[in-house]
Amino acid sequence: ILSTVLDISRIDAGAIKPEIEGFQLQELFDTLEREFKRQASDKHLSLRFVRTSAVVKSDRKLLRRVLQNLVSNAIKYTVKGRVLVGVRRKGSGYQIAVHDTGLGIPAEQLRVVFREFERLGRDKHNEPGLGLGLSIVDRLCKVLRHPITLTSSVGKGSAFMVTVAAGREAVAQETAAVPVPAPHQPLAGLRVLAVDNETSIGDGLAALLGNWQVEVIRATSAAEAVEQMEQHGDAIDAVLADYHIHREDGIALVQALRKRANRHIPAILITADRSKRVQDEAQAASIQYLRKPVKPASLRASLSQIAVSRVAAE
Q: Is 154 in contact with 201 (CB distance < 8 Å)?
């Protein structure tokens, strides 16, 4: 709660400065789908992100937070049906829309929902929260200069729409006439031990690596990781580990696994801890460092280096 209130204060004080860049919107969609898939499934809701080739111009982290709040709210206040996220052309830019089949909002209260600590009487006793999510969304959209609109029908659902500018690559991608052949899978056959105590994150990582034909052996604790190493031994090509694994240290775990295997196993630390101390410790232990939420392109590049080294060693 304090963190969210502090964020609102920082936005209002102009302390948050967006870093605008062009990027593939699909990368953001993929991350959000992995993040919310389990939550939607637990409520027996259909969650769908419509695939897109759109390149948008925004701050990647801030836009992600906007969409995180919108998708989270949509799932929270939808009892049955679906949540649909898609994008369409709007003028010279794009309009990202989050549709749900939830409770809906009366016309006279459409602007009220964006106020801090404001919750509608119909839902405030049914779902946890303080009514800060949409306030953050409204403020971030103003910082990003992304207009946000809302349409809703009581009992049928709502749609939040955020308009963003198009990136420079968009026109070239949309006018390309020749289909791009499927890329070669240089990671096919790579076997990694993935250690993360959060099951939902492990699920998302396994799904991503599976698309690259990487075989994933999972562990949710240091003890389980050691067991997997003893069982699979020399077959493991790399270790992907979170830094905080219950009370364990991911860097220390990698070093223990290397010692147990009696060889240098390539490793990647994937963590939300951005402290310089952790980065320095990882570097000193010859462990690559990637921040959460990990970018698929960065992870693929790191694994490709490991795959190339493995082939060279053979």
A: no
* Pick from 75, 97, 99, 76: nearest CA to 87: 97
Taking residue 120's Cβ as centre, other Cβ atoms within 10 Å add up to 15
DSSP string covering 220-232? SSHHHHHHHHHHH
Tell me the H-state helices in 43-155: 60-76, 133-144
Range scoring the smallest mean pLDDT among 66-70, 130-134, 199-203: 130-134
Q: Which residue has the tokens 């600590």?
A: 117
- The mean predicted confidence, pLDDT, of the chain is 82
Segment holding 69, helix H or strand E: helix 60-76
pTM: 0.51
Q: Which of 163, 167, 116 is nearest to 142 (CA)?
A: 163
Percentage above 70 pLDDT, the chain: 81
